[in-house]
Design goal:
Order of helices and strands of chain A: HHHHHHHHHH
Number of helices of chain B: 8
Distance between the termini of chain A: 103 Å
Structural class of chain B: alpha+beta
Mean pLDDT of chain B: 90
Number of strands of chain B: 11
Largest sheet of chain B: 4 strands, mixed
Strand order of the largest sheet of chain B: 9-1-11-10
Structural class of chain A: mainly alpha
Low-confidence stretches of chain A: none
Mean pLDDT of chain A: 89
Number of strands of chain A: 0
Shape of chain A: elongated
Largest sheet of chain A: none
Distance between the termini of chain B: 85 Å
Oligomer: heterodimer
Order of helices and strands of chain B: HHEHEEEHEEHEEHHEHEE
CATH topology of the largest domain in chain B: Alpha-Beta Plaits
Radius of gyration of chain A: 39 Å
Number of helices of chain A: 10
Radius of gyration of chain B: 28 Å
Helix content of chain A: 25-40%
Largest interface: A-B, 40 and 55 residues
Chain lengths: 258, 266
């Protein structure tokens, strides 16, 4: 088929097409002609480069201003204080935890001063007694713990230790002492069951008190043939839960607990 | 009979030679584009370097939270608000701390006064508490994030290093993502009227710093690091602890891992 033939066939196709289809197709052509350039104008240039988003959005998120300077930068000027802190119980804390964001101060120490929380309100954020805090975390009841005295009069926050060696066990183990006070074991001193090295008072985690490890220890009072008061609860040595150690079922600081 | 046989011999419609030729052509035409596509997929991750030299494709970030270590002091909440200019009102948090108290009768009481930013107070509860603990929460940076799926304009996305980010310039504030997040980790910024969320402090991690909450935590209850690589504090955390994630049934595959998490938490 030659070219004029093809043209004439196209012409007849056009004349045979209904009027409304012609108008619609014209509209379609206009829509496509507008849509394609508009689309390329509206969609950002780097959209879809690495995903269904603008690649430069990563850059913009990374550009945000930094407030907290980080763990290591304080050491450059305050190495003596950092050294003191590293020896004490607060060795795991970052300086900015108490002194606040330090990026501005690190850039220009003269212009920006860091906060120094000297009042009684700050330390209890961590050290106030809360039932939900994990066992062993040092806590006080600030209402009864030297009220009106700022913490730093007795404790150095860079190397916090009790100002004097605690004399009684309940200075630290208050929860246990309170529990024992309402139990039948109230008159038994802590040292009767826990052999406590003297160093435990100054270095509690390195030198730990002992714990009774066998049934016979409790049996000294509680076996049927044991000497002692008549009111003490007695159990048979061989038949009463012989497979277990006593504390697996009974809490020694409150033995009557369910 | 004779006519039929000669016809067959003289004009074979589809000879063996042609069949084998076409067969090879077909196999080749399937293999060549296939192998090209496979080679493209197998080739190394795309190289993308930000202006500060950070390479997002080299990382996959995650966070570990040890519930046993959290003391509920709220310093992470404070640090996050300062670092990211989060509004101080008590409804807007990128991270917050919840206190769980499980009572005698099995009821779990959860509270988070002002996100825990001023720590907590002992309540005058009438019932005895069986156990109690704090749970820090934040965006879980899901590997399969529902919030990204629902965004109608592609303004929130999962970055190559596994962090879920928001592009405020393109966010239209429709709040679909806030509805979609099963962890309640998103909010609408009251001034910009765009969705906001934890970014793992993207501006910090891309410069080699830890997120502000990790920096501020006094008991190291929060651990930050790589999910994939072997040498990372998070890898040690995942190895040494029994790990749980929040709402595992939703298959969001969170990248915030909890250690010593109570079964009451979700």
């Amino acid at each position: 088929m030659n070219l004029p033939d093809q043209l004439s066939r196209l012409k007849s196709l056009w004349t045979r097409t209904p009027e409304q289809t012609k108008r619609l197709s014209l509209l379609l052509v206009i829509f496509v002609a507008l849509f394609l350039p508009l689309r390329s104008l509206l969609i950002p240039a780097d959209f879809g480069e690495i995903g269904h988003y603008r690649a430069s959005a990563l850059e913009e998120n990374a550009e945000q201003h930094i407030h907290y300077a980080g763990q290591t930068i304080c050491f450059d000027c305050h190495d003596d204080i950092v050294h003191t802190r590293n020896q004490g119980y607060h060795r795991g804390l970052s300086c900015e935890m108490c002194h606040g964001p330090a990026a501005a101060h690190a850039e220009d120490p003269g212009m920006s001063q860091l906060r120094v929380p000297r009042d009684r309100g700050y330390c209890p954020l961590c050290h106030e007694y809360l039932a939900s805090r994990p066992t062993g975390f040092p806590q006080i009841v600030s209402a009864s713990h030297n009220p009106l005295k700022p913490c730093i009069t007795c404790h150095n926050p860079h190397d916090p230790v009790p100002p004097e060696t605690p004399r009684d066990c309940e200075a630290c183990h208050a929860a246990i002492a309170r529990t024992k006070a309402i139990s039948h074991h109230v008159y038994i001193p802590c040292a009767r069951c826990h052999e406590t090295p003297e160093e435990h008072r100054v270095n509690p985690r390195m030198f730990r008190p002992s714990k009774p490890m066998n049934r016979d220890f409790c049996g000294e009072c509680h076996y049927t043939d044991a000497a002692g008061s008549e009111v003490t609860q007695r159990v048979e040595r061989d038949t009463h839960g012989a497979r277990y150690v006593c504390w697996q079922c009974h809490y020694p600081h409150l033995p009557e607990a369910k | 009979m004779d006519i039929l046989s000669t016809k067959k011999k003289s004009a074979p419609k589809y000879g063996r030679r042609k069949f084998v030729k076409n067969l090879f052509a077909m196999i080749a035409s399937a293999l060549v584009p296939g192998s090209l596509v496979a080679r493209e997929k197998r080739s190394d991750k795309p190289v993308l370097t930000l202006a500060n030299g950070y390479k997002p494709y080299d990382h996959n970030w995650g966070m570990g939270v040890d519930v046993n270590k959290c003391i509920g002091c709220g310093r992470c909440v404070e640090a996050c608000k300062i670092e990211n200019n989060v509004p101080r009102d008590p409804f807007f948090f990128r991270t917050w701390v919840e206190r769980y108290r499980i009572l005698e009768d099995g009821e779990a009481v959860v509270d988070s006064p002002n996100g825990g930013i001023n720590s907590f107070k002992n309540g005058p509860g009438e019932k005895a508490i069986v156990r109690s603990f704090f749970v820090p929460k934040l965006c879980n940076h899901c590997d399969n994030p529902p919030c990204v799926q629902v965004c109608p304009v592609g303004a929130t996305f999962k970055s190559p290093d596994g962090v879920i980010l928001v592009e405020p310039d393109y966010c239209i504030g429709c709040r679909y993502c806030i509805q979609a997040c099963p962890y309640g980790a998103r909010f609408l910024h009251p001034e910009t009227r765009t969705a906001e969320k934890c970014t793992f402090c993207y501006h910090r991690i891309s410069k080699g710093l830890a997120p502000a909450c990790v920096e501020a935590c006094p008991t190291h209850a929060r651990i930050f690091g790589e999910v994939d690589k072997k040498a990372s504090p998070l890898q040690r955390f995942l190895r040494m602890n029994k790990i749980a994630i929040l709402k595992p049934s939703l298959n969001t595959e969170p990248k915030v891992f909890y250690a010593n998490l109570d079964m009451e938490v979700n």
